[in-house]
Each structure stands twice: as C-alpha cells, then as structure tokens.
Amino acid sequence: MPEHFLMELSIYIATGAFVGIAAGLLGIGGGLIIVPVLATALTYFIDSTQTVHIAIATSLATIFVTSLSSAYAHHKLGAVRWDIFRILTFGVLAGAFIGGWLSQFFASSTLSKIFGMLELLIAMNMLLALKPNPSRQLPGIVGNTAAGTVIGNLSSMVGIGGGTLTTPYLVWNNIAMHQAIATSAAVSLPVALAGTIGYIFAGLQASDLPAYTTGYIYWPAFFGIILASVFTAPIGAKLAHKLPVKTLKRAFGIFLIILAIKMLFFTN
Fold first, then answer.
1. What is the per-residue pLDDT for 1?
2. Is this prediction's pTM over 0.70?
3. Nearest alpha carbon to residue 22 among 225, 262, 174, 265
C-alpha cells in the first residue's frame, strides 16, 4: 500500500473522530471542519481543479452518516423535537437538492469564498451569543417551510449540514438549547441526503475528477471520515447534556474564524 495513501487515510480518520464529537456536542453536521480540512488535504493528494466541490460533496455524504448516529443518540435521550423536524423537512429537502445541483455553476474559488463568509457569520453568532426576544416563537408552516428552504439551500451549497444553521434558528425562536441541538442533528439528515444527491447529479458530467469518485463524492475520504465519526458522534451527544455547551460554542467560534479565513483566501 503506498505510503501517501496511509497518510491520506489517517488525516480523514482523525478528521472524522473530531467531527463526530463536534456533531453530537454542538449540533453541527461537521462540514464546518470537514470542508476546510478536505479542501486543503485534497490539493496534496489528488490532481484536480475542483477540490472545493469534491470537499463539499464528500462532506455532505459523511454528514448523513454522522447525523444519523448523532440524531439517534439524542433521540434515545428524548431531546429531539420531531414536531419541529416534520414542519422543516419539506423546505429543507427542496432547498438542499437545489443547492447541491446549482454548485456546478460556481467556480471552486467562488464556493470557497461563500463558505468562508458563511462560516465567519456562524462563528460570530457563536461568540456573541445574542439573546432572542423572550416572546418570539416559531412561525407557522409557511414560515418554517421558507426557513427550511433557505437552511437547506445554503447548507447544501457549502456542505455544512443543516444543523449548523438550524440550531441558531431554533434558539432564536426560544427553543431550549439541548432540544435545538438534538433537533438540528435530525434536520441534518434530509439536508445531507438531498444535498448529496444534488452534488452527484451536478458532478456526473464534470471533467478533471480523480478516480474513486461518484459525481463529486470522493469515496476514500468518505469512508475514512465515517469510520471514526459514527463512533464519536454518540459520545458528543452524551457530553452535550453534561458540559457547558454555551462556553464550548464560544471557544469553537474562535476556531471557526481561523478556518473561515483559510477558506476566504483558499487557492487550488
């Protein structure tokens, strides 16, 4: 087995272990970490000008598996608001598929900058921890469908999983933090599924892709990441009910700012 392949696989496994903890603990799909790491690593291991597309698509595919494990762990703890999940799902599915499919019309450098700006906004939200109006509640079906569509579209286009945007949306509407995190993990499932399908369709006609890809999904990275993340996501979910999540989110926000800067100035 080539030495560089072992190095490549070890990077994916280490990333997956860290992402699994973050997904369960903070209610994020993991793409905020996976995309910058993959986009950087792939420039060394594959010969392609579409590393950002590949990183985002592969991130979404891994998020589906990670979120399944994380959501199940939260469900066993009785924290998932399935009533909220149901009213968000239709919009999330539609928005996520469209976001993934539209990716083919953006250059990798453009997607990288979109990702960086969105990650920076998410990081600032974590650091500021703004308090919602105590009287604010979730909107009706129309409002939640619209919100789900936006969440799905943005999440899919940049490969971050729905939980990253769903958690602040739910908290802003006065859903308890632990319920918001748990429900967001569940919402990441339809985002990742529809977004992955969208990226597969978008990449079927793409050129300049490496071996072992389906559409834009790069399978060596996918299997390396999920090999670790499926085991660590339940650990993160349990820690979410024991650790000071708000404090952890602020520390994580600083880390995200560093990754966001990296993506804003990413060059293939």
1. 47
2. yes
3. 225
